[in-house]
Amino acid sequence: MRYMSGSEIREMFLRFFETKGHRRVHSSSLVPHNDPTLLFTNAGMNQFKDVFLGVERRDYSRATTSQKCVRAGGKHNDLENVGFTRRHHTFFEMLGNFSFGDYFKREAIAYAWELVTSDEWFGIPKDKLYVTIFEGADGVPRDDEAEQYWLDVGVPKERIFEMGMKDNFWAMGDTGPCGPCSEIFYDMGIEASETPGKDLPFPQDDARYVEIWNLVFMQFERDSTGTLNLLPKPSIDTGMGLERTAAVLQGVVSNFETDLFTPLIKRAAELTNTADDVGNASLRIIADHARCATFLISDGVLPANEGRGYVLRKILRRGIRHGRLLGQEKPFMRDMVYAVRDEMQSAYPELIENADRVAKVVFAEEQQFARVMEVGSRMLHQELSSLTGDKAFHLYETFGLPLDFMMDAAHDAGIHFDLEGFEQARAAEQARARASWKGGSQKSASPVFRELPKTDFEGYRQLSVEGAEVLAIIKDGIGIQEAKPGEEVEVVLDHTSFYADSGGQVGDIGWLYSDDHNSIVAEVSGATKPVQGVFAHKVLVRQPIRVGDKVDTVVDTNYRNATRRNHTATHLLHAGLREVLGKHVKQAGSLVDDHRLRFDFSHFTAIADEELQEIEDIINKEVLANTGVVTLEDVPIDVAVNEYHAMALFGEKYGEKVRVVKIGDFSTELCGGTHTGATGEIGTIKLLGEGSVSSGVRRVEAITGLGALKEFRRDFAVAQLANQLAPSIELSPAEALRQKIASNEEDLKKLRRELDEARMKSAASSVSSAADQAVEVKGVKVLAQKVGSLDRGQLRVLVDNLRNKLGSGVVVLGSPQEDGKVAIIVGVTKDLTSRLQAGKIIGPVAKQVGGSGGGRPDMAEAGGKDAHQLDSALASVPEVVASLLA
Predict the structure, then answer these.
(1) Pairwise pLDDT comparison (244 vs 654), residue with the higher score
(2) Could you tell me the CA-to-CA distances from 791 to 180, 299, 761, 804, 822 in Å, in that order?
């Protein structure tokens, strides 16, 4: 067994399977494409899930990948263990080989044993290896086949062990593909034992015996009744952890001692002014979390308070916090981004372009975390005397205050820390997180769609095709032979000119004509792709239509032209945003239809009006240039990204061959949508404005063509009105209108001030002799009064005035509000606050009007819903005060 670097292991694995006829497939995004069941991509098979389910077909039946994975939320959550164990990570790479109905157990086992043990490849000593098979359970027989195939490649029988459902049976979900597993384990030696020096046999020591490869044999499909049926085309899904394999081939016990981590740990030590110690848990955490955060942000995830962004924020803040534990208070994680780039760019070249953008996101989060920690620490000291487990967990989750930090603070103050309550609150939150990401159980595609051949899409070249054959008619998910007039169904054709929903562009509308080319058979309201490559036309039937009929597909020309104008404008907008705002801008979503375009993108601040105008000018210059829009078909994805430098759109799923849309030297993107032949066909692009979608994501909306013309006409009508209002011909219409609006706003503010003053005078007048109406309760003056509609600020002023008049006493004022609710304010003079607190008085009073409140000992406020009970609530004040003085 020779030493191999992590990069050499990755490359050798992929090259081995290429020699066995496998297609090398690039890692998919960490954000799963169109899969609500997953928080993050967490296994190599995720990108092939639809292939295994029969929803998607590819032009190869064998594949091999090195898939980037994250397990840090939802069902798979290793976050709390990272740094304190040898093999837990948030981000890792999963090497895998896959067969889609091609080879099965015999070949998978032979390939695995050859790669692992052959001197030509990894050359791991056979006497250090063990394998496991499924022992049989729950009606599934023992995997005798796998055992025999392991024996055939030379594994001694005494090194083959049986395992149960938990370890050696895999299922995609409650229903769907499933099957037994076979795993390969490596003996790290007695020095790696969980209990030092204790020599336990396999498989009794998880620390010593490390699983390096799992072979999944998909041979069954579980239906809704729980019955297992043999798959007609059994498949193979395997996973070999790169980090674990590197530890084996580099002769180290911990993954953190491999070359995949040691450069990052060294850089973390430099940035935190700490000794370079691979055993330092905080340095391990910083290295791991920097890898994870860099890749997540690169794939479009941004820190947020929910979902994927929330998990990313926790990962970043955990890394920052461990830097602080090492004494580094200044931002440092952004520098770790570049360290990750330098170590990983050969396998993931996209990191080169994304590093600056990622570093900006990380730096912004570091700055925000510093502010949050300051607030959190202040709140901790305020809450310390009454710090429950729930409150402590709130500070931990919301402000990132470390558990040990809070425990130390409680200890120093001589206060018991409610650790049990904290752990209960944490467990409850983890349960909520798991529940929120259960997603829908993704089932196999309906056999109606799965068994159909792909639809030949001819809509790039023409808007109508003749003689399309009706392959299937689907109503409510069930195939039928004939549809009658008035029915709404889906029709699948062998070829079509209709574009189907994809890449943010909506599907075409139009008509299906009979084969005599004259009469309309059905109106098409859209098209989708329920199975990759199969187009389902959503239609309202006008004449009977049957499976086997021939029809003409005719797309609504105006609809298609309007849509493609907007789509081409989206590409120009993307390029214009990057030119003006910076190369960190990256698409985060889009919607293109015949009316307008919507474009979401990564950016950290609002766009100034001047910047929007500059972007609008730049992209309209490209329109006026009438640059040709060139589409390149079937380009290998590596060529598209690395040679053409085409932008890949966030959230899109790309195959090995892609379509490149090029607009001169201005824009090059991967795109399967429909486009104009030249930019001049767009007419003009009018930006309607921009706004925030979420943290770090902005949205611009725009219109083109006739839609833009209508917008200009509307603006012109407003300008004409402004001209009528213009006090001077020297002002532009826009300035005149702004001046008039500003003048009106000033008049309105003045009227509101006058109304407020009138209300205050009226209220003050009505209570001018109120001090004389105060009653004495156990030696304390108490004044409870109802006043006219005043806001809370005015009530506070009045309460202060009346307290001054009383000299010593309690003042309670209640006022009905314009929205039908009630405002109550209690004031207690300073000399009485040791005996009477305003907050204790207001509680029972507010309760009577259906509300609650609180505040300082000398001033408290409350709101209520029931204005009808205000008089009786105020009448009860003397009794409430008396009870508190008892």
Answers:
(1) 244
(2) 70, 49, 14, 20, 10
- Full-model pTM: 0.66
CA separation for the pair 100, 58 (Å, rounded): 9
* Top-confidence residue, 553 or 392: 553
Cβ pair 64, 26 in contact under 8 A: no
Cα–Cα distance, 93 to 240 (Å, whole number): 8
DSSP element (H, E) containing 759: helix 733-766
Are 704 and 731 found together in one domain?
no
Residue 205 amino acid letter: D
Q: Is 178 annotated as a binding residue?
A: no
Average pLDDT over residues 590-606: 88
Round to whole Å and give the CA distance between 303 and 322.
Answer: 18
Shared domain check, 131 and 53: yes
DSSP annotation of 517 reads S
Angle (CA) 86 88 94, round 5°: 115
Domain co-membership, 746 together with 702: no
Mention every residue, 6+ apart, whose C-beta is less than 8 A from residue 461: none
Same domain, 522 and 648: no
Closest CA to 824 of 871, 781, 777: 871
Q: How many helices (H) and strands (E) does the chain have?
A: 24, 35
Per the structure, the complete domain to which residue 406 belongs is given by: 387-440
Q: How many domains does the chain have?
A: 7
First-to-final CA distance of the chain: 86
Instruction: Kindly state the tokens that stand for 220.
Output: 């069954």
pLDDT tens, residue by residue, 14-51: 999 999 999 999 888 898 876 666 788 888 888 888 88
In the numeric block, which tokens belong to residue 404? 């040990």
Looking only at the bridges linking them, the beta strands covering 810-816 and 780-786 are parallel
Higher pLDDT, 578 or 772: 578
653 within 8 A of 51, measured Cβ to Cβ: no
Statement to judge: residues 760 and 780 lie in one domain: no
The closest of 241, 174, 182 to 37, measured between CA atoms, is: 174
For residues 306-327, average pLDDT: 88
DSSP strand pairing (510-514 vs 550-555): antiparallel
- 26 labelled ligand-binding: no
Tell me the percentage of the chain whose pLDDT exceeds 70: 91
- Using CA atoms, how far residue 382 sits from 47, 386, 419, in Å, is 49, 9, 19
- Residue 571 annotated as part of some ligand binding site: yes
CB half-sphere exposure, 725, CA atoms < 13 A: 19
Burial, 275: exposed, middle or buried (Cβ in 10 Å; 0-12, 13-18, 19+)? exposed
b/e 484-514 (16+ beta carbons within 10 angstroms → b): eeebebbbbbbbbbbbbebbbbbbbbbbbbb
Same-domain check for residues 237 and 307? no
- Does residue 207 contact residue 164 with C-beta atoms inside 8 Å? no
SS (H, E, C) 87-122: CCCCEEEEEEEEECCCCCHHHHHHHHHHHHHCCCCC
Look at residue 314 in the predicted model and tell me its pLDDT: 86
CA-nearest of 853, 842, 849, 843 to 868 is 849
395 plus 466 within the same structural domain: no
The C-alpha atoms of residue 230 and residue 228 are separated, in whole angstroms, by: 7
The rounded distance, in Å, linking the Cα atoms of 153 and 112 is 10
Q: CA-to-CA distance for 635 and 633, rounded, in angstroms? A: 6
> Do 228 and 109 lie in a common domain?
yes
Q: Write the CATH number for 488.
A: 2.40.30.130
Please indicate, yes or no, if residue 270 is contained in any of the structural domains: no
Three-class SS state of 333: helix
Mean pLDDT of 382-406: 80
CATH number of the domain at 599, please.
3.30.980.10
Task: Note the pLDDT tens digit of each residue in 723-750.
Answer: 666 555 566 666 666 676 777 777 777 7
**567 annotated as ligand-binding:** yes
Could you give the CA distance from residue 56 to residue 29 in angstroms, rounded to a whole number? 18
Distance CA 863, CA 335 (A): 50
Q: Which two tokens stand for residue 34?
A: 């169109």
